Structure formats: C-alpha cells, structure tokens
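User: Predict the structure for this protein chain, please.
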Amino acid sequence: MRTFIDEKLSELTSDILSSYEREAGTRRIGVMCLPSRAKIIELLERIRQLLYPGYFGHKELSQQNVQFHAGNLLARVGKELTVQVYNCLCEGASGEENGVCWKTADKIAVEFLFKIPQIRAALAWDVQAFYEGDPAAHSIKEIIYCYPGFYAITVYRVAHELIHLGVDLMPRIMSEHAHSITGADIHPAAEIGKSFFIDHATGVVIGETCHIGDRVKIYQGVTLGAKSFPKDERGRVIKGKKRHPTIEDDVTIYPNATILGGETVIGKGCTISGNVYLTESVQPGYLVKPKEHNLQVLPQKALAGERP
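Assistant: Here is the predicted structure, written as structure tokens:
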C-alpha cells in the first residue's frame, strides 16, 4: 500500500536539502572531524577513575594491582583523549597538516595526563572544604559518591586544565554534561582557587571570566554573571572582555544571591546574604543583606553573633 509519506517523500527531501543550503551555519557536510559527545562523557568517567582510585570502576584495588590498573587506565584514556582532541582541533586537516595535528593532539593528551596529580591535589582541598563546611556530610566518601556540587567541581577542574591547553569544545561538552545532571553551570575558563565549596549546587551559575579566590563558599541559586555585553561599532558582542565578578578569599554567598559585572569585586571575608542583587563592589569584611527594597552594607565586626 502506497502511503502519504511515500507520495510526499521526494518533496520533503527537496525542501530539507534546500534548507541545508540556506542555513549553512547549522550543517556539517563534507567535514569528517567532529568530537563524539558520548565518547567524551565516557572519557570523563575514566578520568574520574584516575582521580579517585577505588571509588569508581574497578573497586578492588590493592598495593599489588594498583600499578597495573593505573597504567592500563592511563593507556586507554590517553588513546581516546588524543582522538577526541584531534577531532576538536583538526577540522578539515589533510596531508602534512593532518600529521602535524595528530602530533599536537598527542602532545596535549600527554600534557593533560601529567596534570592529574595537580588536579587530585586541588580536589583534595575541595573535598575537605565540603566536609568541614557541611554538617550533613558524614564522610569523605559520601561527598565523592553523592554530592552534586562536588561532581560539578570535579568536572570543572578537569575541563579547566583542558581549556588552558588550547582545547575549547571538549571542556564545554564536559561542563554542560555536569550542568545537565547537577544543575550547576560552571564555565571551564573561570578561575577558581582552592577549597571551593558549592552547597546543594542547583541553579549555580559561574561565568567564563569569573575570578574566585580561596576558601569561597556559595549556596544554591547563586549567579556570578555579566551585567552587560560590550559591543563593537557594528553592534557585535566583543569577545574576551572581563564580564563577570571577582570574588576574593574567604567569601560566603548565600542562596539566590546575584552578583554581576566584570568590575564588581567582593572583598576578602565578605558575607553576601540570600536574595541580594549586587552590581557594585564591596569592601573586604562587610556583610551585605536586603533591607526592604534596598541593600544594607555593614561591617561584620559590628554584627557579632548575627546570622545573615
């Protein structure tokens, strides 16, 4: 029996092919290189096994088999990482250029793997900040296994190193994967210091040009975003400008606070109460809290014992 779709198939195909010609920016035809989102997420999980041996993947590790386990895992990660870096960087490469691209991808993969101990050290500070900052955390393993905020930070630490090595697309795929399962949207290019703690994670947004110091604690729903987007004479957004705030050391930002602007600096030791909307800098050591329809900015020493 000839169906309606059979009758219209030629017309439908022609219409869709015409749209491919009109909207050329949303097609990839004749270009083979493209990273695999699924492979990158799988790769991320294997990197997590390297970061937390015995927690994920093979859990029966001993002093006798850990060297073999780590070596085997490194070989698998290195091979797949090279392929995906190549696919991110080498679109359209051919001939001699293609060979150079493969060497570059291999070099970047090795450089990243040498960063694993450094990433582990940073995450050790972070997990301790979670344990000390959350009275509901009963153990380190609970945080590593269960806390969405800590998962988001783990992915950020990995993606951040890759973006510094000149790989752009893969870190964004990783961070958006973490965003989709934790609700925390952390741009991999943001600069975040040690002992970083996100409580609950959901709704947290940290923009690309944020600078965050050491021992900073933020809660759910906090936005560290841009106030405006500078444009050129043709009205196009200028890339690369600092658009997001700077948060100095030892700052605590409570739920649903919004802090915007590339020139906004929250000074060391400040406390930002929940539901605050800030577009101006705050001097070190101050408490900012809502007061009716305005903000109240007070030295914290004058408020001993008062909770924000």
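Residues 161 and 206 are 17 Å apart (CA to CA).
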